Amino acid sequence: MDEASGDRVDAKDLLTPQAAADLVNVSRPFVVRHIDAGDIPVVMVGSRQRVRKQDVLAWHERVQNKSAMARSKLLDAVDDELRG
Hints:
It comes from Scleromatobacter humisilvae. By secondary structure, the protein is mainly alpha-helical.
């Protein structure tokens, strides 16, 4: 059961932090940092942290979009500087 919403969670949709990291090709400590920061919602299974696959994918998309926007701004600034 999801503590935040009270909804039942299907066990097949839950991932360990390591499985979540493998899914989006990042390190486990990176995922854990974002879990601890509250960026990825957690479902407690006993005393173990699990995350929903859909939450991991949504978080990863947000991170990717944020990185792409920052990269675009940086490239625009460099382009402006080179054009003088």
